[in-house]
Amino acid sequence: MEFGWPLPKRISYLEELRKVDDPKKPKYPLVFQGERQFYSIHKVPIDLPKYRLANGRTQASQESFLSKNSTLYPPDFFERDEESVEAQRIQHDLLKELLGTNEKNIIKFFREKDQIEPLILTHTGFVVNGNRRLCTFRELLKEDENKYQRFQHIEVIILDNCEEKDIDELEARLQIDTDIRADYNWISEACMLRNRHTKHGYTIDRLASIYGKSNSQIEDILDTLHHVDMYLESQGKAKQYEVVNKQEFAFRQLKKSRNKIKDPDKKTVFTSIAYTLLSNPTESGRLWGAIPAVEDSLDRIITVLQDELDIVGNIETDDDINLLDDEQSELESLIIALSDKDNSERVIEVVDDVIREQKETEREIKNKKFVLSQINKANTALKNAIVGFGNETDTTGILPQLSELELSLGKLRELLLNHAGH
């Protein structure tokens, strides 16, 4: 399999094709550089075109590949030489992973169908639109050259010489269409937008205009990608975006909930808990629902985790430095405890328990017997504690809890007396 002819041979072949203006040849309408134009459709050998390495659809895949192979390839591997045979081969492999499944399976589609639309090539033979189709045709020929010989020559149109920004804008308009083309997945779109913004110098305004989004939508996408990167780095999986491909709504909820929390230490605790949930998804996988529930019950979760996790003495302290108040010190210790992977299972258990209790409380609070029900539960729990008290009992923290219980009992009596007076 050849991944594109050498540059001089491609240019010479394409220039000769463009010289032939056969009125009998079908024309393909395309809005390009702000004008509706009609391009002649030509047939070229399938080995001629090269993949466009700046293709937005593969941006996330490229970054993930380079992260996993950082000792073998430089960070700018896909940018330094678009003619590179090795880069073209790896790009082909990355595109193969994007050929889809089920109803979006492009391989399955073209087993039965002929080419429907021409590929769009630059004047130098790089594919602006149709990279996945080109990959598909090459794979089918590799599978059975005789059966799929109809793809030995493929239909293309050839653009005039133009600037890179013209190509980016054309790709933006064409590649996010939906027909047999697969939709951009959220992470590929985010990586592509970031690349256009940081490396190509596109402003937020310009990106919004090109991709048909509002400025706030572009900013939201880039901010969400920032949170994805922070999470992956915390897991030792930097840029491995396939890990989070199905967790778009979870990250959107993480960002939304995190922004509601003002205290920086609590925000860090929340983020650590959310990362634990993301790396240990429930069977239902509905993290987008669990994450905002953590934010709603964060104070209670913090209290329970401080009791459940062994966080005393986990940080070194200096007797001469006592600038932090007690609550802040406890949270810093908790943050360190949350970073310990050995605590993940217990963290998840606590979060599940607290969220479940909160839901039960919300249901029961609507009941007139709610207060009595809660007192009965507390009474039962205390009786069980008495029964379970023994020589091996760890008494750490019990007295402070009893003091809080006494205060709560006093408050309840006060409320009850006031209620009776009415």
Number of helical stretches of at least 4 residues: 18
Per DSSP E runs of 2 or more residues, the count of β-strands stands at: 7
Mean pLDDT: 86
Task: Give helix % range.
Answer: 55-70%
Structural class: alpha/beta
Which residue ranges are poorly predicted, with pLDDT under 50 across at least 5 consecutive positions? Answer: 313-327
Order of helices and strands: HEEEEHHHHEEHEHHHHHHHHHHHH
Strand content: 5-15%
Shape: elongated
Question: How far from one another are the termini?
Answer: 89 Å
Mind explaining what this structure looks like?
This protein is an alpha/beta fold. It has helices at 7-19, 59-68, 77-80, 85-96, 106-112, 131-143, 164-175, 186-198, 204-211, 215-234, 248-260, 264-279, 287-296, 298-308, 326-338, 344-364, 370-388, 398-421; strands at residues 27-32, 35-40, 42-45, 50-51, 119-121, 126-129, 153-158. It has a five-stranded mixed sheet with strand order 3-7-5-6-4, with helices on both faces. Helix 11 (248-260) packs antiparallel against helix 12 and helix 12 (264-279) packs parallel to helix 15. It is elongated. The termini are far apart. The model is unreliable at 313-327 (pLDDT under 50).
